[in-house]
Amino acid sequence: MSDDLWYKDAIFYELHVKAYSDANGDGMGDFPGLVTRLDHLKDLGVDCIWLLPMYPSPFRDDGYDIADYCAVHPQYGTLDDFRSFLKAAHDRGLRVITELVLNHTSDQHPWFKEARSSRDNPKRDYYVWSDSDDRYRGVRIIFRDTELSNWAWDPVSKAYYWHRFFSHQPDLNYDNPAVREEIWQVMRFWLELGVDGFRVDAVPYLVEREGTSCENLPETHAVVRELRRRMDAEFPGRMLLAEANMWPEDVRPYFGDADGFHMAFHFPLMPRMFMALRLEDRKPLVEIVERTPEIPASCQWGLFLRNHDELTLEMVTDAERDYMYEEYARDPVARINLGIRRRLAPLLEGDRRRIELMNALLLSLPGSPVLYYGDEIGMGDNVYLGDRNGVRTPMQWTGGWNSGFSAADPERLYQPLISNPVYGYQAVNVENQRRQQNSLFSWTKRLIQVRRSTRVLGRGTIEFLKPANHRVLVYVRSLDSEKILVVNNLAGTAQAVELDLHAFAGAIPIEMFGGSLFPRIRERPYVLTLGPYDFYWFKLRWL
Amino acid sequence: MSTILSDELLSELMAVGQLDVLVGLPTLNHADSVGPVVRAAHVAFNRELARERTALLNMDGGSTDGTPDIVRNASIVDRETLLASQSLRTRHRISAPYHGVPGKAAALRAVFAAADLLQARAVVVLDPEIASVTPESVAALARPALAGDADFVSPAYARHPLDGPLVTQVVRPLFRAAYGLALAEPLSGEFGCSGRFAARCLEQPTWESEDLRLAIDLWISGMATGDGLRVAEAALGPRRLTPRQRPAVAALVPQVLDALFTCLRLQETGWAAGSRAIALARSASPPPPPDPPANVDMAGYATLFREGLSALGGMLERVLRPATLEALRAAGAADRPLHVPDELWAAVMLELAAAHRHATISRDHLVRAAVPLYLGRVAWFAAELAGLEPRDADERLEALCLHFERSRGDLVALWTAPLR
Q1: Does any CB of chain B come closer than 8 Å to the CB of residue A515?
Q2: Interchain contact A480–B (C-beta under 8 A)
Q3: What is the pLDDT of residues B337-352, one digit of tens each?
Q4: What was the ipTM of the complex prediction?
Q5: How many angstroms separate the first and last alpha carbons of chain B?
Q6: I need a labelling partner for B219 at 20 to 30 A (CA). Which of A154, B90, B273, B374 fits?
Q7: How far apart are CA A23 and CA A406, in angstroms?
Q8: Which domains does chain A carry?
C-alpha cells in the first residue's frame, strides 16, 4: 500500500452500510455485518470501498443530512465497530474512503441548533443567514421537485438560511474561518482512524457571492486547496474525490495544479455512454471525451455507470435529455429531479450483452471505475419506494430468508427487498452467481482481473480512431511503450470494421481475455468483425 | 521492420493458442542427433503431460542437413510406445527459421517471445545434442514451473567427479562465487522455466548485444538469480552426448572461459549485488555416478602446465597478482610433484576473470593463456581424487565451491578495480 497514486489504478466499490449486511437482526445493515462480507469484495477484485454516509442522521436525505460528523449512526454500530471494519478491510488489502459532506449539515446538527437559537450565538456564523430571501437571486434550485427556493425561513431566529439542497440541510458558511477549522478537525478525526480518503459531496456550492451562480467560485477552490494542503502535510497518500456535477471544463479547476482534488467524477460522460449505446453511434461519447481537458498527471477521473443517486441528466442538452427520458424512462415514475432512478440492469432491460459492454467501456475509458453495490450481480430496483430509495434496497446475497441480508422479520427491514420474478433475490443473488461460471458476477470478476493486469487502462492516454462505421467505437490507450487497442460494437447487430492501424504496423494484437493471437498489423486496413455488443481489448506487442 | 517472429511463424502460433508447456529446440545442422530429442518430447507430451496444452517449437539457424524436416517428421516407431502415448489433444510441432543475428541466443529469444505470446505456463528448452534425453526428463524440467513451484529448473546430471572438469573446476565454482547460487550445471543447454521467467528474459536489452552469442547458456542461468525467482534442480541421471566431432580441449577451454567471463561482464550490475533468488531442493537424489571417464593424462597435462607457465610468464605477470604467479611457479617446480590447491586455483580464476573484465591484455590472449593453467589444475585434482570413494570425491568438489564462495568479496573487489 505504498504507492501514493494508488487511486489511479484502483477499482472503487460504492456501498451503503445499511444495505449491505445486517449482523444484529434489526433490519438494517451495520459494520459487523459488513465485515462478514469483505471476502466477497476481495473475491470480486475491487481495491477500495466507498462508504456512503454512516454518521448519526435523521435520515431525511439518506444520511447526507449529518447530525454528528465524528460518530457512527447507532444503527450501523459503534466507533469501535468501525475501527474493526477498517482493520479487517486493510488486512485484506482493501482501502476505504468515507463520505465527507462539506456543504451542509442536518438541521439537527448541534451547530445549527445553536446557530438558530439566537442571533448572538457564537455558532450563528457557521451558517448563511439573511433577513430577506432576495439575496443570490437567479441561483438555480437543484432539487426542483421538492424545493421552491434556496432560502428557508427559520421561525426560531426569524431569518432565512441558505440551502442548496433540501431545506432541512442548511449550508455551512465557508467564509467563516472557524467553519473551515471545524471541517479540518472532522477530516483529521477520520484520517487518524485510518481512512484512505474522502468522497467529498456537493463541492461546487461551498461559497456564495452576489451576482454569481454561487457555483465553482474561486473562493470555493481556495477552501479545497487549504484542506488538501493540510491533509498532505499530515497524512500523505490519502485521497480526495470530488463530487462536482459539472462540465469537464468547470471541474478542471478542482484539480488545480495537482493541489486540489486527486480525483473528480466525470459526470457528463455517464449519460453519453448510455446515449451512444441506444443510438448505436459513438458520436456523443467521443465528443465528450475529446472535450475533456487535460488534468495533472497525478490526478484521475472517477467513472461510473450508476450510483446511489438518479442517473443524472443535468449535464446534457434539452434534446439529449428528452432522448434519454424517451429511451430509458418512458414510464414517468422512473424520472426524478433531472434524472432517472433506475439501476444498471433494468436500464439495459436485463440484456446481458449490453451490461457487459457498458462495464467494459467503464473499465477501459480513462479514469478509475466506480461500481455500485449489487450491479455486479445485476440487481433490480423499485421505483415505487420514493425519492431514490429504489436503488438502495438490501443487497441480495442468497435465495433464502431476506436474501441472507438480515435475520429480522421481513416487515422490519429498512426497505423491502426486490422480490419480482425477474430481479428478485430468489433469482438474482450472490450465492447463485458464485456457483455459475457464466454468471454476471463471475464475468465481472474476470473483467476486473483483466483490467488489473495492466496499468495502461488506469494511467494511459486515449486516442480515438474513427473508422467509417460509426457503430464501432475504437480507441488506443497508451502508457509509455505499452498500448491497448479497444474495439467496441455499440450495435445490437454484427458489424465489420476496417481500421487504419498503420501507426501500429508490426504489432501483434493479443486479445486480453483469452490470450488469443490475431494477425500482425500491417500498413493496409485491418479488418475485424464483431458480434452484437461485442468488444475486444487487444494488447499490442512488437515481437 | 525487424521482428523476432516471422509472419509465417506467427500464423502457426495463432493456431496453437494459449499453452501450458512450450518446448523449445534450437538447432543448426543437427540432423544426426535431433530425432531422438523430438521423439522424447513427443512422448512426453502424450504420456507425461497428456492433459496439458503443449507444443514443440524448433528454431533453426539455417541448417543445410535437413534438420527441420527431421523435426517435422520424426515419428514414434516403437509400437508399444506408440500405443502407450496416444494423444489426447492436438500436438503442435513447428519448425521455423529464426531471424536476426545468427546463434543460439536469437533462437532462444524467439522461443521466449513465442512463450510469452502464447502465455505458456512452462517452457522447456532442449539441447539437440543430448542423446540421453527421455520423456521423463522433459517432464521433470517442465513440472516445477507448471506447478508454480519454480521459475527456473536447471538439470543436475549424475556425473563422475572427473567427468566434465571444465564444469566442476571452473564454471560451477566461479558461478557460485559470483552469483551466490549453487547450480550443478550453470552451462547447461537444457533447462525449464516459468512463463514469468521467459517474459523477464525477453524484456532484457542484452539481446541486441553481440557478446550474448558467446554466453547465452550462462546468461540464462545468471538471469535465474534475479530478484525473488525460485530456482529448482531436476536430477536427470547421466548425461550422454551424441557422438560427433567436438573441439579439442585447447579450443574448448578458451571458448568456455570467454563465455563465462563475458557473462559476468554482461550481468555485473546484478551479481555484484548478490543473488536474490530462492533456491529450492533438487527434485530427486542423483543416482550413483557412472563409470569414470577415460583417464586424465596427468603427466602430459603437468608438462603442458610447466611449459605454458614458462612460455607465458610475461603475459601472466600482467594479469595475476605477484603472489599468485609466484605460487603457481612454485606449484609447477620441476623438482616437486604438481600442486595446484583450491586456494591457489580460486585466486587464479578470480584474477583472470577480473583481467578479462578490465581487458588488461587482449581477451583472446588471456583465455588462451589460461589453458595450461587449467590443465595443471585438472592434473593435480585428478591425482587428488585417485583412490577416493565417489562420495568423498563429491565432497572435494563441494569444498572447492565453498572456497570460491568464500572468495566472493575478493572477486567483487577485483572486479571493481583493476590490479594495476
Answers
A1: yes
A2: no
A3: 899 999 999 999 999 9
A4: 0.77
A5: 46
A6: B374
A7: 7
A8: 6-102+177-452 (3.20.20.80), 110-162 (3.90.400.10), 459-541 (2.60.40.1180)
